[in-house]
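Researcher: For the annotation table, I need structure tokens for FAD-dependent oxidoreductase. Please keep the output clean. Sequence:
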Amino acid sequence: MNRSDVLIIGAGPTGLVLALWLSKLGIRPRIIDKSSSPGTTSRALAVQARTLELYRQLDLSQAVVQNGHRVGAANFWVKGEPVTRLPLSSIGEGLTPYAFLEIYPQDEHERLLIERLEAFGIRVERTTELEGFEETGDGITARLRLPDGQLEICQSCYLAGCDGARSIVRKTLDTGFPGGTYQQIFYVADVQGSGPAFNGELHVDLDEADFLAVFPLAGEGRARLIGTVRDERAERAETLRFEDVSSRAIEHMKVKVEQLNWFSTYRVHHRVADHFRTGRAFLLGDAAHVHSPAGGQGMNTGIGDAINLAWKLAAVLSGGAQARLLDTYEPERIAFARKLVATTDRVFSFVTAEGRLADLLRTRVAPFLLPKMASLETSREFLFRTVSQITLDYRGMPLSNGVAGHVHGGDRLPWAHDGEGDNFESLKCMGWQVHVYGDTSDEMIAWCNEHHLPLHVFGWRPAFEAAGLGRSGFYLLRPDTYVAIAETCSDPKVIERYFRDHGIRPFFGSP
């Protein structure tokens, strides 16, 4: 009987990232997908700054940035004319090494992840479908339908459902998926074209009718059109063609389409599963939460799920932690998913709302307010922090302790950079580590050496104070680079007690 440590159902970005992180940490996953080949008409585009920060751990960030497209600005149109331009090229300057909006289509993204996964000797098993599973003692027994139609019974220690909004894993677990479906029909068109909206920037139409956005892609004259259909056309979504929706883009944003590469329609849901874990089975990505595309959050949130779960599974499977560490996955991720769905729902409802008042707000009030907001550094910073996911935190969660400076346990470690260096360089390591900004005690140095816990001591500089870091305390960082302990003293017994209380015996660095 075939056996694996972790059986991953679904080879979208969430499943692939989970498999990659596990492989890097010395765990051999098995990943299957019912499709015969990777997707070629995917919808997700944005790779947020927090994802790029985490991708440094697998040396993926540079490849994404080099092959993707950095968006210089967002333009808002009313009545056939651009009325506001919001610069984006350095909107998060000083907050992250990736202070911009990066466009990297999901299909290209998946190919990169598959290539990196194959370097670990792991291949996606295609045309292979999960038919059911049950927990049996110390593992999961699953039934797989293979490409030749044969049924395979396999075992794994854990199962990860990364199989999308119609997840068979979620249905097998009988986990509720409350929420709703937006009335609008969405369409996506990948085109080659020309016109003022093909200048490499993002363009959004705020007019009275359907929502429409033009997203730039790498390469001359390439763009992705994303829009809604609300009138009688929505009733025949199954048969809609690009010709049925393209006239509005041509008329309102002066788009000249020279070649249509692909076109599809779909409905958008906003739902969060009641539970992200049942026993040895976990839900991640769209299997756990779906929401509107506002802000480009969906794929990035699924990737965040994968990284959160990967280091915990690796710790447990390698003997570096007790199984109760896995209890922290659901509370940490479900809280963010619920907040995200509520936030994107409000934004999406505003840009797609119907009626005279909604039209007035979009076409008159928004063009007046947006330039003022764009001119304020605080407004730009708030927008970037929210969309980039660098403000995602696990404050108040079981694995998060203390406060030092403005940094709480559970926060993402703030980035501090000046002419003398970058405090994120050591975060490429996938193990536990300690950061000190200022001075530390001989006891701390001796304890970290004895326990092989990497200790990074940075001489105090103004850049650290500006970032909100506390002086001469310490920060214990988790393998996913979030702060586990923020402490003002230099007593290593605080770390010792933390590991003992949580049943963790740290694994250091990558194998």
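Researcher: And a one-line annotation?
Model: The chain has three domains: 2-67+104-176+274-344, 69-102+178-272+354-392, 401-502.
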